[in-house]
Design a protein that fits this description.
The chain is mainly α. It has three helices and no strands.
Amino acid sequence: MRIAFTGSHRVGKTTLAEDIAESLPDYEFIIEPYLQLEEEGYLFSEIPTLEDYIEQFNFSVD
């Protein structure tokens, strides 16, 4: 089973997910696609573009 959190930027999704993950040791916490792509070297536009969102979506689907 997967648990996903969605919502506006900077409202505490990651903090909530990390706290919940601590109490669910059988689950793996995976950071959001935006941060994963950044770590892999993807350069996002200063102002988000449609291509940025498509890249995140495709990354999530994969």
